[in-house]
Specification:
700 residues; alpha/beta; 39% helix; 11-stranded mixed sheet; Indigoidine synthase fold; 2 domains; disordered N terminus
Length: 700
């Protein structure tokens, strides 16, 4: 069955940052709004928090923070205010968190040097320009909006008082939208310092005049000019393409109607500097003191100008972010579909438009296999391993009231990743390795002995409990209660992955389950993108099914059930309407959303079989995408011994087929056969699969 989708498929994947990947073990906390933006490819704008805690008095600080965020939303981007809350570096604040910061006392003004101590002490910290740039780099947010950057202080040649903002700009890739350098600083020396650091400085608009925060002109010229938001986005795009590791300053003049008289401002600053010296105010306390003194000396007019310029900067920053995201999306269309091909798809040599070139580069030819079969390495499975214990009540009546009921108890290996790995290990004559975490206890030894050599040697965690799952069934075989102790799955770490990086590089396929910690999953997916490794993702449950989409990675295969598919679609498109149609129509509509990030969906339907969906170019109209939908049915068994491993064995059978270059229909047939044998076995995974290994005649 095929359906035409009347628009070009949009790859909304933001490029995975090398900086983020190398440092992804840092505990970043995203707000739900920012998480959603990262999933949907909505441009994000970072905002500092010292303007809330140290820059303005209450309630102006809270009002301004909320208004700035709303301005960014209205321009089509998502605001991400950065702060440290109780030691947690947080990207994107809720209304309640903004209000907390606006009232909070004793919040540390956190620059680069302060981040680690504040996080370690579990304190509250408001990030400066430098601190926010670091968080933005970690979160792969390329654009940051502030009022004014720090710089070389007056008499800085004597005091050596130079803001960390300048050195951070010299080693970041972030574009900072500001109204130039704060007037309280030595603007000329600051511009010289930025030049030494290799920072690209641009005035914004029609003039090359470099603004001075409260005034539109500082008396200095900017070395470059960005005429509008698109031009600024193109400069950032070019900097990323040539891998510059230095930042960009876009200096936006304060709106003319709020600009102040430079003479009045200069007098207020000089008087404030005298007072600061008398009171022996030094270091990072100088800037908030001077700003407050200037505000008092100008009767609050400087505060009004400050608020006006930060709002105007928010408009400009959001517009640049939107334009930059459009530029990135064009290239990501090509990059997304180049991952996982055993041979590079044909390049378009026509001189026609870039849009048509992208369409040609993405073409999928028939049922071309997406696995790199040139690799001779072992399949790498990364996921959970646990011991399953089942308790089958033999009485007809059963009540959860504390009564004791006779039952039959069984024990076997479990865990989605472990089940898939064991099944593949038996199907592929041991050419599979499992990266997991188990305890150094009796249950851990039991799991290791099921398939000796399957689990990598350093996956045993000392003094830890192996994961356990217990299920209680009634006399009819219905599950009444499930209990899980899965804390050890958090030990499947980035450090553990790095110890086996060569295994990942050589693997023909990487299989993941949803039990992997979020940071580890993002890291693995980034590596797979870099090394062009296809990924098979087994969601595990609906809560874990959404985890890969927070990082906007492209997955080659995913095998959700309908509930998990719904969860995937809802996190990608939160405003999706309830679909009140038959099951197949619902699968089709949900697939149209999820296929933005997954190349092939294998939707499992229990005894009804499976449905596969994928997007393909229409041969007659290259600008249209064709949704290919295939429905596969399977025979219903009259007798079933064990249902717990059937789905995982199906996934293993399908993977075994595609690793042999079989057609999709043949691989599905192998999956059905392995699932059938699992249903007839008392073990989660049969000790032997009959008439499957290396069978290329199944399903023909």
């Amino acid at each position: 069955m095929s359906l035409l989708i009347g628009s070009i498929w949009r790859a909304q994947m933001a490029g995975f940052s090398r900086y983020t990947r190398c440092h992804s073990s840092l505990p970043l906390m995203y707000s739900e709004e920012v998480r959603r933006a990262k999933v949907t490819g909505t441009p994000i704008v970072a905002l500092e928090s010292t303007i809330i805690t140290h820059g303005m008095p209450y309630p102006k600080n809270l009002e301004t923070a909320r208004e700035v965020e709303d301005i960014i939303r209205k321009r089509g981007a998502t605001p991400a205010t950065v702060a440290i809350l109780k030691g947690q570096l947080t990207v994107g604040l809720t209304n309640e968190q903004l209000e907390y910061l606006a009232h909070a006392k004793g919040v540390v003004k956190a620059s680069r040097r302060d981040l680690a101590p504040v996080i370690a002490a579990k304190q509250d910290g408001a990030t400066t320009v430098a601190g926010t740039i670091i968080a933005a780099e970690l979160a792969d947010i390329p654009i940051f909006v502030t009022g004014g950057i720090g710089g070389v202080h007056r008499e800085g040649e004597v005091t050596m008082d130079v803001s960390a903002d300048l050195t951070e700009l010299g080693r970041s890739k972030t574009l900072v939208v500001c109204s130039g350098v704060k007037s309280i600083l030595d603007i000329g020396r600051t511009l010289e310092f930025l030049e030494t650091q290799g920072v690209t400085v641009c005035s914004f608009g029609e003039s090359n005049d470099f603004p001075a925060f409260y005034t539109t002109r500082s008396g200095y010229r900017a070395p470059n000019r960005a005429s509008d938001a698109l031009h600024a986005a193109q400069i950032l795009y070019a900097a990323h393409n040539i891998h510059l590791s230095s930042g960009i300053v876009i200096a936006v003049p304060v709106p003319e109607e709020y600009a102040m008289n430079s003479g009045i401002i200069e007098t207020a600053i000089k008087n404030a500097l005298v007072d600061a010296n008398k009171q022996d105010i030094r270091g990072k306390e100088v800037t908030p003191f001077l700003l407050a003194a200037v505000s008092a000396a100008t009767g609050g007019a400087s505060l009004d100008a400050n608020i006006a310029l930060i709002k105007n900067n928010a408009k400009v920053g959001a517009d640049i972010a939107v334009q930059f995201q459009k530029l990135r999306n064009v290239d990501n269309l090509e990059n997304a579909f180049n991952i996982g091909f055993s041979k590079s798809p044909g390049k378009c040599t026509t001189n026609s438009s870039r849009r048509f070139h992208t369409s040609c580069a993405m073409r999928i030819k028939g049922e071309e296999n997406m696995i790199n079969n040139d690799s001779e390495g072992d399949v790498l499975v990364i996921g959970g391993a646990n011991v399953d214990r089942t308790y089958r009540v033999t009485e007809e009546s059963f009540q959860l009231d504390g009564s004791t009921h006779p039952c039959k108890t069984e024990q076997c290996g479990g865990g989605v990743g472990r089940n898939i790995a064991e099944a593949l290990w038996r199907l592929r004559d041991g050419r599979v390795r499992l990266l997991t975490a188990i305890g150094d206890d009796a249950d851990g030894k039991y799991i290791e002995n099921i398939a000796p050599g399957l689990i990598l040697n350093d996956c045993v965690v000392k003094s830890a409990r192996t994961a356990k799952y217990a299920a209680v069934f009634d006399g009819k075989g219905e599950c009444l209660l499930g209990l899980g102790d899965m804390d050890i799955h958090s030990q499947i770490s980035i450090k553990l992955v790095n110890r086996h990086i060569d295994l990942l590089k050589n693997a023909p396929l990487v299989v993941m389950d949803g039990n992997i910690p979020q940071a580890t999953m993002d890291y693995i997916l980034g590596l797979c993108q870099e090394y062009k490794k296809p990924v098979f993702f087994e969601p595990t449950d609906r809560r874990k099914a959404i985890k890969p989409f927070y990082g906007q990675h492209i997955i080659t295969y995913a095998s959700p059930n309908l509930m998990e598919l719904r969860a995937m679609a809802s996190v990608i498109k939160p405003d999706i309407n309830n679909i009140k149609e038959n099951e197949l129509d619902e699968i089709i509509k949900l697939s149209e959303i999820v296929l933005n990030f997954v190349r092939v969906l294998i939707i499992t339907r229990g005894s009804k079989g499976v449905v596969t969906t994928k997007l393909m170019n229409d041969t007659l109209e290259p600008y249209l995408k064709k949704l290919d939908v295939q429905v596969y049915s399977t025979a219903i068994l009259n007798t079933v011994e064990n249902v717990s491993g059937a789905g995982d064995c199906f996934a293993s059978g399908f993977i075994h087929g595609i690793l042999q270059n079989l057609k999709e229909s043949q691989s599905i047939s192998i999956g059905f056969e392995t699932a059938k044998q699992a249903l007839l076995s008392k073990e989660t995974v049969p000790l032997k699969f009959n008439s499957i290994t290396n069978s290329k005649n199944i399903g023909t």
